Amino acid sequence: MQENWKWFAIENKGCIVLFSSMYGLESPYEEVYIPNLINNPIEYGVGKAGIIQMTKYFGAHWGKFGVRFNCVSSGPFPNNKVQKEQSDFIEKLNKKCPMGRIGHAIEIAGAELFLLSEVSSYVNGHNLIVDCGWTIW
User: Fold this and answer.
1) Is pTM, for the whole model, over 0.85?
2) Contact, 130 vs 108, CB < 8 A?
3) 109 Cβ neighbours under 8 A, 6+ residues apart
4) Among 3, 84, 104, 117, which is least packed, fewest CB within 10 Å?
5) CB 44 within 8 A of CB 23
């Protein structure tokens, strides 16, 4: 069994996981952010879209050196302070999510672990979307 994994140590010299957002893929869902989009300005989405493109670019150009670049685009994972202080906002997010709830930190950690592990050794330049299905609408 160990013989079969020699190629892994030789061919896989590194893995970088970048972080983007569902808003790097689509425009913010306006009804969640009413009365205005102050909490989700255009430059946020532009930056996150750039990270997705950078993942693909580096994946294409560094793969031949055994370095993989991948990305995780997260959906609604509001921090604890927002969850405690803005229950109406959380309720709106929950309604938009096909699974009916916001994400938990462990759900992002699982995606990261997959991309950093040897079981994803043939995954390169990929944007893994972890968003409860938000972007399927």
Assistant:
1) yes
2) yes
3) none
4) 3
5) yes
Answer whether 68's CB lies under 8 Å from 12's CB. Answer: yes
Token duo for residue 70: 């991948």
Q: How many CB atoms lie within 10 A of CB 93?
A: 23
Give CA–CA dist 15/92, Å, rounded.
36
Q: Which active-site residues does the annotation give?
A: 44
Distance CA 26, CA 4 (A): 42
Cα–Cα distance for residue pair 94/98, rounded to 1 Å: 8
- The answer to whether the CB of 132 falls within 8 A of the CB of 101 is yes
Question: What is the tens place of the pLDDT at every residue in 26-69?
Answer: 998 888 887 665 678 899 999 999 999 999 999 999 999 999 99
- Asked whether the beta carbons of 120 and 70 are under 8 A apart, the reply is yes
Q: Phi-psi bin for 133: left (phi > 0), alpha (psi -120 to 50), beta?
A: left
